[in-house]
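input
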Amino acid sequence: MATNSDFNVPAQLVKELRERTGAGFSDCRNALVEAKGDVDRAIDVLRRKGQAAAQKKAQRDASEGLIGHYIHAGGKIGVIVEVNCESDFVARTEDFQRLCHDVAMHIAAIDPRYVRREEVTQEILDHEREIYKEQARATGKPEPVIEKIVNGKMEKFYEENCLYEQHFIKDESGHLTVGELINQMISKLGENISVRRFVRLKVGETTNAPSGTPGAAAMEPVS
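output
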């Protein structure tokens, strides 16, 4: 009886999966074996394993890292972002440095307001939910349907405004979020990795970030 381990993975498929995910050779090969050569399914396998690895390492202290930066549009938009890991060794790797650059570039392009959904204040959530309820009630739909509509719009709010929930700008498939990108790097480098804070500056734009959200004061000067 044939098993997954009997599946012969073509080198070209491994190469394609590595290019699309940035995962290591053995992880890509094992994912393709599990998915029986289906690249899209293999990507899902890598995501699940990345999330599992991230959950195991999430409680570990990550006090090292780098300040990533990105300047865009002829010097009109700039981002600095603090990305943490557990060791200076990992912080100096090419993979980690590329991650810092890519996250900064994503922030420059997409302009998130928060790092994670947990940072959104209850006041803002209540305000957004009330707006969505009013919009849904105007359609005349019953309350149970309205609640489902509002919950869906709240998820869309997180996706549009929270860095970890946003679809990573360099992922052409449109399925990989920034949070999943970070999880993949956790799995690859074996350390807890997280974005701590960021600030995005645009020439001529007044910074007026709500309390508790990233803004001009999000990265305090060090004395």
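quick obs: The chain has three domains: 1-57, 60-120+162-223, 121-159.
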